[in-house]
Specification:
Chain A: InterPro entries: FSCA_dom_sf, MIP18, MIP18-like. The complex is a heterodimer. Chain A contains six helices and three strands. Chain A is an alpha+beta fold. In chain A, helix 3 runs parallel beside helix 4. Chain B contains no helices and 28 strands. Classes of the chains: A alpha+beta, B mainly beta.
Amino acid sequence: MNPGGDVLENINPTLYSKCEDRPVTAEDQNDYITDEFDSREIFDLIRNIYDPEHPLTLEELHVVDLSLIQVNNETNQIKVNFTPTIPHCSMATLIGLSIRVRLIRALPARFKVVVEITPGSHSTEFAINKQLADKERVAAALENSTLIGVINQCISRPSPAA
Amino acid sequence: MINSQTLKGHQGRVWNVSWNPQGTMISSCGEDKNIRLWESFGNKFTAKAILSDGHQRTIRETAWSPCGNFIASASFDATTAVWDKRSGQFECNATLEGHENEVKSVTWSKNGQFLATCSRDKSVWVWEVGEEDEYECAAVINAHIQDVKKVRFHPFDNILASASYDDTVKLFKEDKAEADWINFATLKSHTSTVWSLAFDRIGSRLATCSDDATVKIWKEYKPGNSAGIPTPDNDSVWKCVCTLSGHHGRTIYDISWCHLTDLIATACGDDAIRIFKENPEAGDSDMVSFDLVHTEHRAHNQDVNCVAWNPVVPGMLASCSDDGDVKLWQIKLENL
């Protein structure tokens, strides 16, 4: 799929290996133990989102990385930095929106989700960050049926076989 | 600050609450595309009506005409609807079209002669209110370079203020000779989106709130002012005389300046409502200061989108949130 046009912007992206699945411990199975959200859990929610251009996940392209996710359960804040594959990537806003939508849908409403470009990794990072942080513009964008269709495809294509 | 009532009914985010001029009714609106009207009986507000089918998308804001007989609603569907109660209940009898994208805000002039709207298409439109559901476009103003978030008229004069994603606030007035509306002042100081603004009771000061998590107070200097502020073109100059920083944890989405008590309320993305009061001991009117007199932490379970002081009952405040609730509050004025 390539909604941006006939020519791929980044023809030959670098591929990275995927991380292991999170091991399930006995505590995880115990309903009497309260599990706080952690960065690995957030990472698992977004690692299998697909890139709009390539049949590859954001994890495989190193667009998202476990080390660039911060979770604070006390203040209900979650911050995700993502790194576009190239500094002038026109898909950056769409990728950021996909991450936002995935987290808004999956997480309790108490969380304040901030999605920003990893500092220094995009030529217009300030403008894109401002747009992603403007919930009114995000809400209006998500009422656009074409756009939400593309985002849903990025989010919900079946994850590749483990 | 007492939470006197919580009004439930909207599905999803509630963007805006507005009082009728008599202070007896509230209109609320949001992403469920409905306008809900709430009326007071004694001290309790009850659901009065639901206005639906006026818009195809989110309703961002509603505004009552100064006479209380009309409600205008601004929608992401790029239209503004005007509802009137000539038949006994509110019905939509006019739809204003012209904006290219989402309409973000709508406001009536004090004398009821004008209606103004603004949009993500960067423009501000002024409509002249005529007879028989006729609204004629008096001006299309392309002064902002980004999404325009809020428009508000001056409390007495036909002066219009707008706040934008381009970080500025602009003021407009009617140029009768040219039969147009002109931008006579641009207020620059915020470092991110200006979400909302409010005039004080006499209209010589303006409070603005922003994504930069500050509130700013601006003061008008008329031509010939005693402070010696130069006024080129013989127009008033507005200067920032106070910045309230360090109080808000996130974006400030709305601000309301009470014309009865002079208190300022803010709606913040950190779920809190804050109340500010002017410190009279500052003395020098060119160096005003405001004190934070109350913070209602967790006023709502999610972002607070709007705060509105009742125009008749001192200290009564309405708010609404992403959590879907409309809340009514009473401030204990004697404690401030």
